[in-house]
Amino acid sequence: METHCLKRPTRRQFLSSVAFTILAGSAAPVMARSISGSLPWEARSADPPVQVKPGGWLFFTPEEAQTMEAVADRLVPADELSLGGKDAGCVLYLDRQLVGSYGTSSRLYTKGPFMPGLATQGYQAPDTPAQRYRSGIAALNAFTRETKGGKRFAELAPADQDAVLTDLEAGKITLPNKVDAKSFFNLMLANVMEGFFADPIYGGNKDMASWKMLGFPGARYDYRDHVSKHNQPYPLPPVSIAGSMEWMTR
Amino acid sequence: MSKILFSLTLAATTFSAGLALAQAPDQADEIIRGRYQAILGDCAACHTAPGAKPLSGGLPLETPFGQIIPPNITPDKASGIGNWTEADFRSALKTGIGHDGKRLYPAMPYPAYTRMTDRDIGNLWSYLRTVDPVFNPVESNQLPFPFNIRLSMMGWNMLNFAPGEFRPDPSKSAEWNRGAYIVQGPGHCGTCHSPKTVLGADETSEALQGGSLQGWYAPNITGNSYIGIGSWSEDEIVQYLKTGTNGHTIASGPMAEAIQASTSLMADEDVKAIATYLKSTEGGPAQKPQPIPASDARMKVGAAIYHDTCSACHGGDGKGASQLFPALAGSSIVQQPSSETLTRLVLQGSQAVHTPQAKTTPSMPSLGWKLSDEQVAAVLTYVRNSWGNAAPSVGASDIGAQR
Hints:
Order of helices and strands of chain B: HHHEEHHHEHHHEEHHHHHEEHH
Structural class of chain A: mainly alpha
Largest sheet of chain A: none
Strand content of chain B: under 5%
Number of domains of chain B: 3
Largest interface: A-B, 26 and 32 residues
Strand order of the largest sheet of chain B: 1-2-3
Order of helices and strands of chain A: HHHHHHHHH
Shape of chain B: globular
Strand content of chain A: under 5%
Helix content of chain A: 40-55%
Oligomer: heterodimer
Radius of gyration of chain A: 27 Å
Number of helices of chain B: 16
């Protein structure tokens, strides 16, 4: 043990460490770019989001899509304030997210160790959102088939669907294949809300329905003309990243 | 031994360099004055490609007749103008005929440089001899038949070219005459800012009234207060040429390059003289036309797009923000007969010029991905006819051509 600690570096180790230091030192200026004068700029540069267009499912099977549409319509029911989650395109939004970087967690650190974390630490398990929806929807339908007379979730009456969702949220239901009911419910709730409130360019929030409901002005970023107009409603309609009906030339 | 040899060589070099300087004290002044002529003439704008050695040849110029590549004008004997004599150079600038009788194309603005004084040309030549020679062969003539026949420029010159030095107007001030000399001669402002005839010559009867080139519209820069620079004070013109920005607008595109490499480096009194002269020139419509009414369908769509997309920077009232966002209300570039520059700015975006006095370089994002041809046309029609502006509407077909 002691000999280990006192071991002096050999000549070879010393020389190679010096060589490494020199290499690392000389590589650094090459990697850093110094900018003087005007900032870098390119004509026509843009990184716009791609407009999601309806038509076919890219992630969900028809049965999964039907289940999710039923869920979306219970989480955001159609009423006098707005249309429902299904018609607002929440499932279309979700479908396109699940085939993208969100579905595969490709922008997250997803290697172990996997340990139960605190609630404030967010999701800690290895499954990606795509995997969680695949197993979660299957588990949900298996549960209703078993307990609700062989019916899939989408085939239940709205009141029964509400009861199932309420129990999921409360963690009163044990789903098969070790799917965590509460965690899956929270995932669906978060994603349906995203679809309902996000910019329509991503497939949900059809015709800016949720923004009209709230009076949210949308993708605007300057209100100087209106700051001093106290107690007056903001006059302009909401606008999406992709524009609005007012932009239509014909 | 090698050390001694090295010191000897060093001493010898130092000595001979000192001798060269001692022999030509007058030439140093000439060279310095010549370097200033190169700034006035903005030789680098065409003859230096971005990132390349000075004056070693430029980027292709797109002309209505085809492509011309500005040649290497360093003193390299094989690929530059190292074999030229001063007489060759003088002839090229005064008559458009270079070394060996080779006829230049008027993309080289000899119709303007012909106005330069012999002294200024001589100084410029002295300076060009001192530039680092660079071996870079350039074939300037990329024109298609029949324009590639250089002799055809003989006929062109007969029709379009009036050689001769600038003649001062004795009834005007020395400052005015200095400004006229720079604008018409070395500064060759009309090369971009004068409309062109079908033969590509400056339309001299409409000098400085605006012209289209290389996908930009160089605006009217006469003293016209509707469409020229008449609404700017002399100080504002000076500020624009020295820094690229004044309270009203910010330079971009080819003018940004001209400001960076030329006008911002000019002597203050020369820029002042240019302003004095330009303010005195006349040209363009005296009366503003009637604006397109706000009730017009295109104006309504344009207003919606403007307030959703543009107003955050340019303001709901089109007044912009001084030094940061150009004002659109009352802007002359906005109201030019051609909307070419505006279309380009909307489709491609733009970055403000960088000068020592204006370092922020705010930029406009490209909106080409977001707006259709019809939408760009509508918003430009709105901008050109709001807040007191008035100009012809813009059609969707004008936009598609610039995508």
